[in-house]
Design a protein that fits this description.
With 807 residues, this protein is an alpha/beta fold. It is built from 24 helices and 19 strands. The longest helix has 40 residues. It is a single-pass type II membrane protein.
Length: 807
């Protein structure tokens, strides 16, 4: 029996190996043999017993030992075979112990049964029948074993789930192992090889068009093209429809009159401007806060006057908001030849909503058939705003060319009339998505997005980003299909509409799925305006992504000098301190949803690219890039691709939470310095802020230490750590700010009275004894900001028993 059971066990082990390597023929045969040998082993017990009894009936000498029976002589050996593969156990006893055990086991009677004489003729008479019966039994067992093996193999074929788990997972439970994927060096080489300039060039030609404004038939056709590409790559796709309100020029053109004469009408306009007619003009440089402060120092009152400002340095909406805060009556914005190299009659397009998304559904998704609350964004301006051309600005400033004239402030005789006749309409827009699902944590994903619409050709604004979006989707899906790459987490590719009105499509999507995205989405990368020059590199990102972006720049060759890395070529760019402003399409992801985001661009250090004009064409972009557009596009694609692959390839997310320590400390240093003015009550102490900062430092350091001492091959442990890392950015959103009043709730990177920047400004006002200073309001800001920092530290610390709230 031992021999047959051993054969059965060996067949079972080999059959498992054959099943692991998907050799069904060998597996079936070994299953049959396993069942046969097992039954044969069982039959051998009875057969040996029968033969032994017959042998004892005629044998004159008692055997020294027997298998699985009782002892007949001086010594006894008991051999017990472990079917799981353990060594056999041998036990020896003396004959003095045997007699008692024999009686106890009740075998004495059997011994006496075999004390009769032996008759050889009787054994010979039974031998032929015994052999015949033995042969028939073997055939019967073989048929039974065949049937059992066949049925078990069929059952296995129906229920088998292919996996890369160890072969003997049926014997003992094993820890979940990581999904096989390529090494990072191989992965990086594959991306650079498969992301090609010919494919990018093909996409640029296919997706470029003279006009594809949001909600137009051209915009929808482009969306269908992108959807078709995603489906061709084998991606899961879907669309997201929104019904949003936007401004368009009315039947009566917007007009600007200077000293009673029509300066001219313009095709350009600013969406969401107030619809009014106002008078009197005043020049205010770029319309920054410091520019208006300079006017106040010159004792020039802005109240009730129209303000003429240059385009550039900050968004149109911020210029208008700064003017409105000083009670200006209107704002005119023009492209100055110092900054722009465009034609004198080129019109500017844009919007002046100090926010993102549909301003008539603030913090609320504009889905169809949804009951919208009767509200509008607090970021809508109360004064009219209009763009004018270089030629029109020249007529206002002087009779000569603007580039040759002296800029002047204007006087009471410089009467200007601004007529804005925009109309508010509702449009249906489409966001298009394609997803590459992860092989382990499919419910954790990052998003790569690009704006699809534009006022005119919008080649640099949207076509380049859309082309790179599709090429990256093609490249990564190809790596999965043909090269064995298996991303651990999912990648979503998104094409947004209505970006020209202030990231409307992206923001409405965020508002619609905010609760889900804040738990599952761990990063966003923007491809908008990624190329507008060649001699300067600008990037802005969440501090959590600084380190990853910098290390990626060291692995990508410069498009200008192939002997240098991107990091070496643009080492002078202090991109870490470049703030993410309202004009960045990644801004709502970062400050509204609390999702770590990256936005970067190759740009010109001398001239501003004509975004938002009809001169945003492929020919103009070639001139701004010194005919290196394709090289720059491939480099930008490599940066985005490598950052993406790093985030979905590694066991742990490459988000450095320790980077926020220095950001928080810098704000607190300002607060401590300003608090020494002696104007704060004694009950307000900066120790609260210091304690909150200390909690965050300790939580970040503890998590870093935990990572260092963890088994990073344990996928469940990595998932727990990643969940803690993902909580950081979202925990910096103030839970005390109203979405209808302050959409951008991030206390470090957002805007509004809940931010640490507002806290510093308020301290400055208190120190300076300004009328705007309010001690009670400051105490409220101070307490809420302090507890937001402490809450972030708690989230980073992990479980509730690991938290430290000793403030």
């Amino acid at each position: 029996m031992f021999f047959f059971c051993l054969l059965s066990y060996r067949c079972w082990c080999v059959s498992l190996l054959s099943r692991h390597f998907e050799n069904k023929a060998i597996f079936s045969l070994l299953e049959y043999l396993r069942s046969f040998f097992l039954l044969l082993g069982l039959l051998s017990v009875f057969t040996v017993k029968r033969i032994q009894d017959s042998f004892l009936s005629w044998c004159p000498v008692t055997p020294f030992f027997q298998f699985n029976g009782e002892p007949r002589a001086y010594t006894r050996f008991n051999l017990t075979q472990n079917m799981e593969g353990d060594n056999s156990h041998v036990e020896m006893k003396l004959s003095s112990d045997m007699d008692d055990e024999v009686e106890a086991n009740g075998v004495g009677e059997n011994i006496n049964q075999h004390n009769h004489p032996y008759y050889p003729s009787k054994l010979n008479q039974r031998s032929s029948k015994t052999v015949c019966g033995f042969v028939i039994g073997i055939l019967f067992l073989f048929i039974i074993g065949y049937l059992i093996g066949y049925l078990s193999n069929r059952s296995t074929d129906k229920t088998e789930i292919k996996s890369n788990c160890p072969v003997f997972n049926e014997i003992a439970p094993v820890r979940a192992e990581a999904v096989y994927s390529l090494d990072w060096s191989d992965l990086r080489a594959l991306l650079k090889k498969k992301l090609t300039t010919p494919n990018i060039n093909t996409n640029l030609k296919e997706f470029s068009s003279a006009s594809h404004q949001a909600g137009s038939t051209e915009d929808e056709a482009l969306a269908n093209k992108i959807m078709g590409k995603f489906k061709t790559f084998g991606m899961s796709t879907w669309t997201d429809e929104h019904y949003v309100k936007v401004h368009e020029p009315g039947s009566s053109n917007n007009r600007v009159l200077f000293r009673g004469n029509i300066v001219g009408t313009t095709e350009g306009y600013l969406a969401y401007s107030a619809v009014k007619t106002v008078q009197v003009t005043l020049y205010a440089h770029y319309g920054r806060t410091e520019d208006f402060r300079r006017l106040q120092e010159l004792n020039i009152d802005v109240n009730g006057k129209a303000v003429l400002v240059r385009a550039g340095l900050l968004s149109f909406s911020e210029k208008v908001a700064n003017a409105a805060s000083l009670n200006a009556s209107a704002v005119l914005i023009y492209p100055d030849p110092v900054n722009y190299n465009i034609k004198d009659d080129t019109a500017l397009f844009g919007h002046v909503h100090l926010g993102t998304g549909d301003p008539f559904t603030p913090g609320f998704p504009s889905f169809n058939h949804t009951q919208f609350p009767p509200a509008q964004s607090s970021g809508l301006p109360s004064i009219p705003a209009q763009t004018i051309t270089i030629k029109q600005a020249t007529e206002i400033m002087s009779d000569g060319m603007l580039r040759d004239t002296m800029y002047r402030l204007g006087d009471d005789g410089d009467i200007i009339t601004v007529e804005v006749n925009n109309v508010l309409i509702q449009k249906k827009i489409h966001n298009v998505f394609g997803v590459i699902k992860g092989y382990m944590d499919a419910d954790r994903y990052m998003v790569i997005g690009a704006q699809r619409d534009a006022w005119g050709p919008g080649f640099a604004r949207s076509t380049v980003g859309t082309s790179l979006l599709v090429e990256l989707a093609r490249t990564i899906t190809d790596m999965i299909k043909n090269d064995g790459f298996k991303p651990k987490r999912s990648i979503v590719f998104a094409s947004w509409s209505a970006g020209e009105f202030g990231s409307v499509g992206a923001t409405e999507w965020l508002e619609g799925y905010l609760t889900s995205l804040s738990l599952k989405m761990f990063s966003y990368i923007s491809l908008d305006e990624v190329i507008s020059g060649f001699d300067s590199f600008k990037a802005t990102a969440s501090p959590l992504l600084y380190e990853l972006l910098e290390s990626t720049m060291k692995q990508v060759s410069s498009p200008v000098d192939a002997t240098k890395s991107l990091h070496e070529q643009f080492a002078g760019s202090n991109w870490e301190k470049s703030p993410m402003g309202l004009s960045h399409s990644a801004y709502p992801f970062q400050t509204f949803s609390g999702i770590p985001s990256i936005s970067f661009r190759f740009t010109s250090s001398t001239k501003s690219y004509p975004f938002g004009t009809i001169e945003d064409t492929d020919q103009n972009l070639e001139r701004y890039t010194s005919y290196n557009t394709l090289k720059l596009a491939k480099t930008a694609g490599e940066v985005v691709g490598l950052v993406t692959l790093r985030l979905v390839h590694d066991h742990l997310l490459k988000l450095n939470m320790a980077k926020y320590t220095s950001v928080i400390r810098n704000y607190f240093t300002f607060c401590i310095f300003l608090s020494k003015s002696g104007r704060l009550p004694s009950t307000v102490t900066m120790q609260w802020l210091l304690s909150a900062q200390g909690s965050y430092d300790r939580a970040a350091s503890t998590l870093v230490s935990a990572i260092r001492n963890s088994d990073l091959e344990d996928m469940e442990q990595c998932r727990v750590i990643n969940n803690r890392i993902m909580r950081v950015e979202g925990s910096l959103l103030s839970p005390y700010a109203s979405l209808r009043e302050s959409l951008f709730r991030h206390i470090l990177l957002g805007s509004g009275p809940h931010t640490l920047a507002a806290l510093v400004d308020h301290l400055e006002a208190i120190k300076g004894g300004l009328e705007s200073a309010d001690i009670d309001q400051f105490k409220n800001q101070f307490a809420l900001a302090t507890w937001t920092i402490q809450g972030c530290a708690n989230a980073l610390a992990g479980e509730v028993w690991d938290m430290d709230n000793e403030i």
